[in-house]
Amino acid sequence: MTSSLPQGVTRPSGRAPDQLREVRIERGYTRHAEGSVLVSFGDTRVLCTASVDNKVPAFLRGKGEGWVTAEYGMLPRATNTRSDREAARGKQGGRTLEIQRLIGRSLRACVDRKLLGERTITLDCDVLQADGGTRTAAITGAYVALVDAVRWLQSRKEITRDPIFGAVAAVSVGVYRGVPVLDLDYAEDSDCDTDMNVVMNDGGGFIEVQGTAEGHAFRREELQAMTALAETGIARLVDMQRAALAG
Amino acid sequence: MTSSLPQGVTRPSGRAPDQLREVRIERGYTRHAEGSVLVSFGDTRVLCTASVDNKVPAFLRGKGEGWVTAEYGMLPRATNTRSDREAARGKQGGRTLEIQRLIGRSLRACVDRKLLGERTITLDCDVLQADGGTRTAAITGAYVALVDAVRWLQSRKEITRDPIFGAVAAVSVGVYRGVPVLDLDYAEDSDCDTDMNVVMNDGGGFIEVQGTAEGHAFRREELQAMTALAETGIARLVDMQRAALAG
Amino acid sequence: MTSSLPQGVTRPSGRAPDQLREVRIERGYTRHAEGSVLVSFGDTRVLCTASVDNKVPAFLRGKGEGWVTAEYGMLPRATNTRSDREAARGKQGGRTLEIQRLIGRSLRACVDRKLLGERTITLDCDVLQADGGTRTAAITGAYVALVDAVRWLQSRKEITRDPIFGAVAAVSVGVYRGVPVLDLDYAEDSDCDTDMNVVMNDGGGFIEVQGTAEGHAFRREELQAMTALAETGIARLVDMQRAALAG
Amino acid sequence: MTSSLPQGVTRPSGRAPDQLREVRIERGYTRHAEGSVLVSFGDTRVLCTASVDNKVPAFLRGKGEGWVTAEYGMLPRATNTRSDREAARGKQGGRTLEIQRLIGRSLRACVDRKLLGERTITLDCDVLQADGGTRTAAITGAYVALVDAVRWLQSRKEITRDPIFGAVAAVSVGVYRGVPVLDLDYAEDSDCDTDMNVVMNDGGGFIEVQGTAEGHAFRREELQAMTALAETGIARLVDMQRAALAG
Amino acid sequence: MTSSLPQGVTRPSGRAPDQLREVRIERGYTRHAEGSVLVSFGDTRVLCTASVDNKVPAFLRGKGEGWVTAEYGMLPRATNTRSDREAARGKQGGRTLEIQRLIGRSLRACVDRKLLGERTITLDCDVLQADGGTRTAAITGAYVALVDAVRWLQSRKEITRDPIFGAVAAVSVGVYRGVPVLDLDYAEDSDCDTDMNVVMNDGGGFIEVQGTAEGHAFRREELQAMTALAETGIARLVDMQRAALAG
Amino acid sequence: MTSSLPQGVTRPSGRAPDQLREVRIERGYTRHAEGSVLVSFGDTRVLCTASVDNKVPAFLRGKGEGWVTAEYGMLPRATNTRSDREAARGKQGGRTLEIQRLIGRSLRACVDRKLLGERTITLDCDVLQADGGTRTAAITGAYVALVDAVRWLQSRKEITRDPIFGAVAAVSVGVYRGVPVLDLDYAEDSDCDTDMNVVMNDGGGFIEVQGTAEGHAFRREELQAMTALAETGIARLVDMQRAALAG
């Protein structure tokens, strides 16, 4: 599938409207974690580690179920201008909390928590370098780290049946000068009328859709075009996850 | 427009799929604020006040623009089980921050901040009683409080041209046993496969769309049916806002 | 009993020196709490809810005694000028802590904690609108919510003997231009030389007396006149509590 | 003046009902502060320092007035059982805030803030050893430190007219087995039915009266007897302050 | 042993290069703690209390070992300029945490934690007056308080064998105008090129060495001269600790 | 220079006593920062970025001097066991504060802050993977990032004269089974009797020396042997810094 911008309109990145940035998924990036993935969507680079803990939060204790959760952070100079270190400020900002809640919910959507048993897998997604789309890169990479952590549990015979069903990936879409475009980098995101983050599974089902009108409100047709574009992008990301996991 | 549930399926609330709860919008609920609205969506009751301050946040100082922001809170016993008071815990939770960011963004979408001038309008949305849909009720009520605050500014000749264009309202939609339904109460929300909050303006444009798969992922068709349902619900809410403001 | 101001002196509210504001006590104001009372002393409106929890704080565990405690909050725009939200600031101020400690102590003075058993009743007193005397209104309303919560426990046969003995109510008194006056509203409080909050039981005993010289120090005679005035006011408040509970 | 306990009743301390503990007021206890006083009420020892700063809080800036404020702290092992260090816990408790607000209000009652000019005097009251009555000892000692700080300002010709009028001192009173007693130590405080802290000036005027029923409610007669006892105790404390300042 | 400054160089304090300030160690300074020592190094005065608690931190539970830890604080006006109260600021600063970690490590170096059994001894070191060297005075005094607390445990037969082996003391050294000097006061510390804190035991072994170049980097020879000087100073401090404990 | 372990003693890493781990210094690791260096000491990897800000902290404003400061963080799963995220816990731990204070002091030792002018350079040192010696790797890498940031300032003609004099590097040394060894990895650090961090400049001067007895106290001879070993290690590190900066 291909699409094109209207005569004379060029994306700041020079990409075709439905073109992803170069995506790389490096497994085993650090050594201690049960899963450790450096995911890059162009210049956006996120280190996603999966840590297994044989405990569950208080609200799940004794229920025979596991938990999957995420934390998100941005190194102070991941961005163009240095931002305050949240640890030094003494609290995580609203944006951080919002993103880590999104990552956690998205990944829980592909886990059978009964099969996981009473253990917690924490996905730490730390942005080393930001250029737009950090949350969608984080979800896409964290899925691979999660699979690695589950494989580690299986290799040690701690669990027998695979608690993960399907795959989960995410991408952003937007409307740039009237044209729906895929996988916005920072420059494009800043210049778009609408920004939408879409999380889907490998069966084509939607897990999260979060669209925000930046400039003016968007129409039903734009919503549909953006979700269609997200579908094609996520299908390709799922293929890359599979390739990385087969590697 | 009417719709119906499949043979034998009844919403917990007994409502038709496209039926809103009883909505009430009471202006002037408290006396000190420039705008003060008690909004009820059924048993959900949110007190929305608008406060005018002749200052703007640091990042806007000297730019000749105003700011519109929101804070959200829930009284500890607004819910069935008492939750900890955020002031006592020493921080606002992620859900709170997420909601108040949503309310602020939604309302800024109908304000010309240049016309507002260098002042801030803060919308405090405090949930007195919760029964599902507190954030959509808050947005719907806060819009009315915002208009009242702007009228107050106009009545004092502090601003001449109205900085508000159009209206903003919000509603939740979901898929209950396969059927898209409008304006979920708490019992329905807990039992739905998908929960989506939609914010729109009075011109039929989307401002925010936030859909989350609770049970299993949702399909493109469900997404479209839910947004269509939201459109009809929000059109009716905008009518009620107008009626309240005319009152 | 009547009293009067010296020739030519009028209270800002126009009330007689020993006249309470209009007091209303509405039970069942919200639906989830075991006790829920909206109390109004004139324009001061406080929502008091009582929540039952089958646990006690650590220092009481295993002692066979219950606990009664209070939390106090003020909606940001309950007052004439918006005050910062304590949850957003990250801590409760000294005034808030002082008031909630006072409310808790006052209500514990009428509870046999052995009879309550190992459970905690939390009184949340949230000021929807402030016009002076919020702490005394809170105590007066919280007592009614507490009784309702205890009745709820009795109706479920969780406790058999009533742990509440007597009644507790509170009122403020002050000295306005040399004359002791009852139940100060905000305008009067700001203009008084002395402000005193008095908590009493229905047997005429004092539970708390907190007097503060605002302008100049007060004399022994003024202290006596103020406490006498408080006695008459509280007797009337206790009657209103009884009437509300009989309703 | 003497008084006595009923036949067979003895205060735990063995003192007569109207007898203060041994009071010592040592000026110049530490070297850096503009005023530094170690005050002892028996085994209660509080270090009170007065620090002068040529700034005022934001709410007073440009008004030509000064400010007097207090902070209170207790060393972790000032008490029989070690309590957590508030700095380590990350916040001051309600009791601490309540006491430091009381100390600040009490001392402001004897200061003409216009004459003080745009400067702040902070009274730090740190309890080295606690045996009941720490807040009343703190007020009594802080007054002396405040006078020393003002004298220091005068000696440097920073102010010409003395902004302090009169003196302020404080003492606790209670009802022990039916008898009003003066200046409770910890053992007596724990065993009293009523505990009252009284702050007065040297003219016999009341600045603060804070009485709390610990066991059962107290009667009007008891309130009067306690305030009368406080009057005699404070008169003696004011004499000791004068003697210390003359030293 | 004596040493001297080069012709024409005088320490600000007038002391010989290897001369300690006057050191005093007063046991039993406050009454509640199991060990309570006021230690003075000249005008630096630190109150060190030792508190015994029959619990250990979570990471040691059930291991049959005890714990020794320290907390450090400075009264706001211990210094020439008032510093903010850490409890009011809501956190302990980096310097405070660094010092209390040092004190804890230093004292654990002379304790057999198995012999101590499952209990914690907390050393609270609160600076009443600061004139340089507060951390070294704190370590030297806290050792004595620790011994007193252990003796208290032994006197109650809670432990039989003494868990303390040897003694621990500390002193600062520096290089002043090219000459190594012992036990810097504040004026000297501010004017030194190098500042080093040394903790040793009574067997001449080093427990901590922390040297910092203030002005220019220091040479190997200076490091050796400073450590030699520290050895002689600490030997004298250990003698004073012994004398105090024999008293 | 070579040295060897006693017959039959082998370092856990198999290295010779005076052998550094493989050190890599990669400049330009991320794209936004004025200096960005990934430094590796074996498996320890620290990302050091230098950020230039045209402001100074309040205590330096208007003095015509710049500031150099550091912040340190560890990704939650940089270590073998996941540690809590400091941003989520709401504060930086004592170890973090201690390390970042050390890094800042060390780098300020080679900067002429007058020549830097009124700007701040912040060195963010974030540990991606930890295997002992993170603080010494951080200092060594941060120096290179600092030089890059200064070159960036020079290339933009914002400063003319180079404010950096000399070089700063750091290494750890310890005593393993009686033998002084260089550059401890985590396994060695855990098994050493003494651990010392040394910061030096390229002229052979000491900037910081921090030695801690882990097991038993160390002797003067050991201290000298360790500092001698550090000298040789740091000389090699300074060579590598030069080579990297020449690259």
Automatic annotation (TrEMBL), chains A, B, C, D, E, F:
Keywords, alphabetical: Nucleotidyltransferase, RNA-binding, rRNA processing, Transferase, tRNA processing, tRNA-binding
Positions of the Exoribonuclease phosphorolytic domain: 19-149, 167-231
PROSITE patterns: RIBONUCLEASE_PH
Binding site for phosphate: R95, G133, T134, R135
Entry function: Phosphorolytic 3'-5' exoribonuclease that plays an important role in tRNA 3'-end maturation. Removes nucleotide residues following the 3'-CCA terminus of tRNAs; can also add nucleotides to the ends of RNA molecules by using nucleoside diphosphates as substrates, but this may not be physiologically important. Probably plays a role in initiation of 16S rRNA degradation (leading to ribosome degradation) during starvation.
Sequence similarity: Belongs to the RNase PH family.
Subunit-level organization: Homohexameric ring arranged as a trimer of dimers.
Protein name per its UniProtKB record: Ribonuclease PH
Organism listed in the record: Lysobacter daejeonensis GH1-9
Source organism phylogeny: Bacteria, Pseudomonadati, Pseudomonadota, Gammaproteobacteria, Lysobacterales
Gene name of this polypeptide: rph
